[in-house]
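Cross-check.
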Amino acid sequence: MFSYRIILLSLLCLWLSTKGGNSTSPLFRYCFNHENYTDPSPYATNLNQLFNLLYTKVPPHGFGLASTGQPQDQVNGLALCRGDVNTTSCMSCVNEASKKLLERCPYKKGAIIWYDYCLLKYSNENFFGEIDEKNKFYMVNVYDVEGDAASFNGKVSELLSNLSYKASESSVLYASGELKFDDEEEGSKTVYGLAQCTGDLVGSSCKKCLDDAVAEIPDCCDGKQGGRVVGGSCYVRYELYPIVESS
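Predicted model, tokenized:
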């Protein structure tokens, strides 16, 4: 079955992955429904109402979902902010995401966009509670890890697997952490990671989504200093520098 996985290895991705990225610039977007709507139309009105609802609902808790309109023109959507992002930055990200989706996926009945701070997704189909296995991409820090790559890969897997469990057990489906270890060639190192799911998933579905993402890390990021597997329902990331906002 064809999988919508995009491997981003451009200089832009290098900058985003090594420097943390600009929270106001989208990481990626996908217009996954090629069915069009017109404007003006009930669907266009419902979509704008949905964006307004998410802008209001999401920032206080970091996640929100909503449906607007009657079945024939219904729009379903959700937005998620990264677990460490404050309310003001969350609100700004969701607002920017809704504007950018209208620009980059004009008149499409289903689309998703990711930022460093948030993601936003909408569709004419009800997708709530289902793991999104199609809309996915990788980001790779193109610098190779120094020292024993195989040992480093193992530490990355250990950290992210632990965070997968912690996130799935958390009420907000989010976890971040770090793992200190000794490298025989390079000495002491610390790898930082995070894992998060959209709030429409239950704990067991979140765990499956994250475990699947962790299992894909070797495909994209073997021996690399950092990387991400980012999907429509969950994502994982690791780097050799802190990647969450300090409290």
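Residues 5-123 form a domain with the Killer Toxin P4; Chain A fold (CATH 3.30.430.20). The chain is about 35% helix and 35% strand. Passed to J.P. for a second look.
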